[in-house]
Design brief:
Blueprint (H helix, E strand, L loop, with lengths): L2 H25 L1 E5 L13 E6 L11 E2 L2 E2 L20 E6 L5 E9 L4 E5 L2 E4 L2 E2 L1 E12 L2 E11 L5 E6 L11 E5 L4 E5 L18 E2 L3 E11 L10 H4 L11
Antiparallel strand pairs: 1-2, 2-16, 3-4, 5-6, 5-16, 6-14, 7-8, 7-13, 8-9, 10-11, 11-12, 14-15
Length: about 250
């Protein structure tokens, strides 16, 4: 068989595979790896999840893989936007204040909201959110074993999710900040690990997130491991089987 013909065939097949992967990642679903513990216990370091790219429509940031955004003409509005981010949803967005890194946080503030943290309790439009104790949660955070206090937080739309606190209410660095007034077409994000999350509470590092910077909504986990992908010999013992294919809430 002609070697050059085989080579051309293989290149053509790889071109189709890569093209399909790029199209799926840009328009439908994109994998995302959790790099930090800011969303503990909802998301752990080493979780791999699927981001829904079409739920909020498309902006320039939708056509982004890793930290590379395809150089397309600037879109003034999101295309095919039939739904906006809602309180409680976990979203991936580009943070232009941190070397254009991708962040993942939970939406707590909508355009027009007044957000304030008073003694560690989230206040939305001058009303504190409902909190109830839910026991303890243990985790390794920054190579340190920590026992967190766990709470169920209920947002004004009825959405409930888990948060954790390492320190007593009012004792952490970001437990008394604000008020923040969310501008039009912007959102206020917070991590579920409230005492170890760089989020919208830190204006100089994250601040309000523009709608067009949001890449998509986190949907479900498809893999989770407590070790690096390069540590092949640890794979059989590090996979968190109980987290596989779980829905993100």
């Amino acid at each position: 068989m002609d070697t050059s013909r085989v080579l051309r065939k293989n290149i053509k097949e790889w071109f189709y595979v890569i093209s399909c992967f790029i199209l799926v990642c840009c328009f439908l679903f994109q994998p995302f790896k959790i790099p930090s513990g800011s969303m503990v216990p909802t998301l752990l370091v080493g979780d791999f999840l699927i981001v829904n790219k079409f739920c909020y429509g498309y902006s320039n940031e939708s056509f982004r893989i890793g930290t590379f955004t395809f150089p397309l003409p600037k879109m003034a509005k999101r295309l095919f936007a039939h739904k906006l981010p809602q309180r409680g949803e976990v979203v991936v967005f580009r943070n232009g204040r941190d070397r254009d890194q991708n962040y993942i946080k939970r939406v707590v503030g909508l355009p027009g909201d007044k957000i304030q943290i008073i003694n560690g309790v989230l206040h939305i439009n001058d009303t504190p959110v409902e909190l109830r104790e839910a026991g303890e949660y243990s985790a390794i955070d920054r190579n340190e074993y920590i026992v967190f206090k766990k709470y169920i937080e209920k947002l004004p739309n009825g959405y409930e999710h888990v948060i954790v606190k390492r320190f007593d209410f009012g004792q952490a660095t970001l437990d008394n900040v604000g008020p923040f007034f969310v501008p039009d077409e912007h959102y206020f994000m917070m991590g579920d690990n409230r005492d170890n999350s760089q989020d919208s509470r830190v204006m100089e590092a994250v601040g309000f997130v523009p709608l067009n910077y949001i890449m998509g909504r986190a949907e479900c986990l498809f893999f989770s491991s407590s070790c690096s992908l390069y540590e092949v010999f640890k794979w059989p013992f590090s996979i968190r089987f109980e987290r596989l294919f779980s829905v993100i809430t």
